[in-house]
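User: Round two. Same drill as before: sequence, then structure, for each protein.

Assistant: Same drill it is. First protein:
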Amino acid sequence: MKKKIFRLSVILLHIFIPLTIGGLIYVLFRTEDLLMFRWFESAGISGAVKAMRTSFLVSDFRYPYWLVFCLPNALWIYSLTSYLILMWKDDKAKLFWFTLGPAIGIASEVMQINGLFPGTFDGMDLAFTAVFSLIPFATIRPFRKEM
C-alpha cells in the first residue's frame, strides 16, 4: 500500500501538477487568439474561462515574460520526460524513450527557426525546454527502484 501511495505521489508531483500549472498559465495569461479558446467556446465553458482570466489579469501588473511564454512548454516537456522515465523503467529500449521528451521539446523549438514547426523561435524558450527536459533525470530516476 505504501508503494502505491508513493507512486501516486510521484505521478502527481512530476506529471499532473506541472501539466496543470502549464495549462493554467496558458488559459490565464495567453492571448485569446489561440485555438484552445475556440475549444472552450465550443465546450460552453468560455464564460468560466473569462471569469478566471479576469480575476488574474490585473491591468497594471506585468507578469514576467518567462513565466507566460517559456514556463508552460518547459513544464509540459518536464511532465512528458517524467512520464517516459516512469513508464519505461524496465524496457530494453529505454534510452530511446528517455530521450524522446527532450528531443521533442528541443527539436520543436529549433524547427521554428526555419518555419518547420508552428510558433516563433525564442532562445529563452529553448533554454527553458532544455533545462526542464533534463531535470527529471535527477528527480525521477533515483526513485524508480522504489516504485
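Second protein:
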Amino acid sequence: MNPTSDKQEAIEKVKELIKGIDIAMLTTVSEDGLVSRPMKTQDVDSDGNLWFLTKKDTGKFHELVHNKQVNVAYVGNSYVSIRGEAELVESSERVKELWNLAYEQLLETTYDDPNLVLIKVKTDTAEYWDSGNMFKMAKFLFNRLMGHNTEGTDMNRIVELN
C-alpha cells in the first residue's frame, strides 16, 4: 500500500471514530502548564484538519499565539486522542459558513464580529481505542483475562495523519 492511501485510510478511520461526538477537549499550553476545555468541533476536512471557533479575547487564543502544540480528545463509543499544531485563521467567509444561531447566545456575538477567529488543528498523530465494536472488545478482554498477547487486536492503535 502506498503512503498516500495509508494516510487517507488513517484519516477516514479517525473521522469515523469521532463522527457524532460534537464536543472535544482541546488542550493547549499556558504559562502555568496544560489547560483543557470543551470545544465544539465545527468541521473535519478532507485532510483530517479539525476546525473550532473561538474569540480573540480568550485565554486559549493567547496560549495558541505563544505555543501552537495542542491535543484534542474525543470520548464516545471510542476514545481518540489527536496531537497536532494549531493555526489561527481569520476568515469571515469560513466563520459564516460554519455559523449556527445557537452561537449568538453561547458566544454573545454575531458571525460578523471581527473578534471571532477559527482554530485549525493540523493533525499529526492520532491514538485511538476502538471500543465501539463489541466483538472486538469481548475478544480483547477474553485474551487479556486468559493472559494471552493482545497485540494485533486493533483495539488500540497509533496512526500518522500528516
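Strands lie at 23-30, 33-40, 43-44, 50-55, 69-75, 79-89, 116-129, 156-160.

User: Perfect.
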